[in-house]
Design brief:
This protein is about 15% helix and about 15% strand. The chain has 7 helices and 23 strands. The strands form 5 sheets. Strands 1-2-3-4-6-9-12-14-15-17-19-20-21-22-23 form a 15-stranded mixed sheet, with no helix packed on it. Strands 5-7 form a two-stranded parallel ribbon. Strands 8-11 form a two-stranded parallel sheet. α6 (about 145) links the parallel β3 and β4 (about 155-160). It is elongated, with a radius of gyration of 36 Å. Keywords: Leucine-rich repeat, Repeat, Signal. One of its GO terms (cellular component) is plasma membrane. It comes from Megalurothrips usitatus (bean blossom thrips).
């Protein structure tokens, strides 16, 4: 009897310690039922117990990013003297700031430092600026910090030392609109450095040290409108570099080392309107170089040392209104090289080596100079091509007064160094001529009025055309009594 009681007591103790199988099964079943009844967002959050799981869920938009327990407030960390990154925010309250400006002192924190996790304390930031002090060093884009800022619209980092941009450096931020990355000594852009940023409209990579731009650097950017790559060391643009930027409106490539451009260089830029290529090392332009940009309206090619233009160099640019070819080494423009430019309003050929400019070369532009103010610059002189009877300004030489408002006609493309003496009876300009201009030094103000619209544009007008005629009344001579 005593033995049986002992066995029963031991069995009860075992059940209390381990739990009955039936009870454990019932508890697991109850837990599963409760899990099924949980909302999907809460169930995903409970499954992502690690920090990486929470960050991934937040990046996918499944759960909102909330400040983690024990994380330092990004905007209230000035009392921590061991940090090398300090931020000033629009609000010091937790999860309340929309703007933050951060400064990097000394040697920046490494990529895994806790300071980057503190950005989770301000998850609604819309503007973030990071500036590196002159005597400090920062070598990377803080992708870890950006991953917590799901509402960020503008990001700027300047004066860093970033040798290369890594793929997906901007954490696939769906709300990001502007990126200011100038003056960071960037050399290399890895493929997909700018990828899957659907609302990005502007990228500024100016004043860096970029040497080449590879394919697929820019990918998944349907809203990008402005791209600045000026003041770098770019020598090579790979074919189809801009293939995925079909909505781009403005591209600045000025002040680089580009020597060769082909049609494939600009493949995909169907909507581009403004292209800056000035101050490069282009010596020639081949056939159909810009054919892939039918909507181009402004093209800047000055200060390149251009020596040769193919007759078909500007083919396909029927909407071009402004063409700047000044400060090059062009010796001639062949007839046909300006064909198809029916909307031209501004042509600059100053400071070249042009000896002659045949009428056949500019004949295709004559229709575009009707009923609108247009400008044609050549050899440092201002020639205002104006129609509709009057102008706002034209060129007037210093000696025009001696000619009673008329400048001397000349067939030479270059003005004489010394103005000639006024003729006794200056000849009348050709009837219907619509070119008003003069031989003057750069910087001389332009004044006067123009003649009526032209019906004929003679080749002699491309010499030194006259200043506007000013009618004067001769004063009668008094006779001695």
């Amino acid at each position: 009897m005593a033995r049986a009681a002992l066995v029963a007591a031991l069995a009860v103790a075992a059940v209390l310690l381990t739990g009955a199988p039936g009870a454990a099964g019932a508890k697991r079943s109850k837990d599963k039922d409760a899990a099924r009844q949980e909302p999907p967002a809460q169930r995903r959050k409970s499954l992502s117990g690690s920090a990486a799981g929470e960050a991934a869920a937040a990046a996918a938009g499944l759960v909102p990013v909330v400040p983690k327990v024990g994380i330092t407030n990004l905007c209230d960390s000035f009392h921590i003297r061991t940090l090398n990154v300090y931020c000033h925010c629009s609000s010091m309250q937790l999860a309340n700031a929309t703007e933050a400006s951060c400064w990097v002192f000394g040697k920046s924190e490494n990529e895994s430092a806790p300071i980057w996790d503190s950005f989770s304390s301000q998850p609604i930031l819309e503007t973030l600026k990071i500036h590196v002090r002159e005597d400090s060093v920062h070598k990377f884009i803080p992708t870890r910090a950006l991953s917590f800022l799901r509402k960020l619209k503008s990001f700027e980092i300047m004066y860093a030392t970033i040798p290369e941009l890594q793929p997906y450096a901007f954490a696939n931020l769906t709300t990001l609109q502007e990126l200011q990355l100038q003056r960071n000594q960037i050399i290399t852009l890895k493929p997909r450095s700018f990828a899957w940023l659907p609302n990005l409209t502007m990228v500024n990579l100016g004043e860096n040290q970029i040497a080449e731009v590879q394919r697929e650097v820019f990918l998944g950017l349907p809203s990008l409108r402005r791209l600045f790559l000026d003041h770098n060391n770019i020598t090579t643009l790979h074919d189809a570099t801009f293939m995925h930027l079909s909505g781009l409106d403005e591209l600045e490539l000025n002040d680089n080392q580009l020597a060769v451009l082909t049609r494939e260089t600009f493949s995909g830029l169907k909507m581009l309107r403004r292209l800056l290529l000035n101050n490069n090392k282009l010596r020639m332009l081949g056939d159909c170089t810009f054919c892939e940009m039918p909507h181009l309206t402004e093209l800047y090619l000055n200060e390149n040392g251009l020596q040769y233009l193919s007759v078909r160099a500007f083919e396909g640019l029927s909407r071009l209104t402004r063409l700047v070819l000044g400060d090059n080494n062009l010796q001639q423009l062949s007839p046909g090289s300006l064909n198809g430019l029916h909307h031209m309003r501004y042509l600059d050929l100053r400071n070249n080596e042009l000896n002659t400019l045949p009428y056949e070369t500019v004949k295709p532009l004559m229709d575009s100079f009707r009923n609108i103010t247009s400008y044609f610059y050549i050899e440092g002189e201002c020639v205002a091509l104006l129609v509709a009877g009057r102008v706002s300004k034209c060129c007037r030489p210093p000696h025009a007064r001696a000619h009673r408002g008329r400048a001397r006609w000349s067939e030479s493309a270059r003005p004489a160094p010394e103005p000639p003496p006024p003729p006794a009876a200056p000849s009348r300009p050709p009837r219907g001529l619509g070119v008003v201009g003069c031989a003057l030094r750069p910087g001389v103000p332009c004044r006067g009025r123009a003649r009526p619209a032209p019906t004929v544009f003679p080749a002699s007008a491309f010499g030194v055309p006259p200043s506007p005629r000013v009618r004067t009344r001769s004063k009668p001579t008094r006779q001695p009594t």
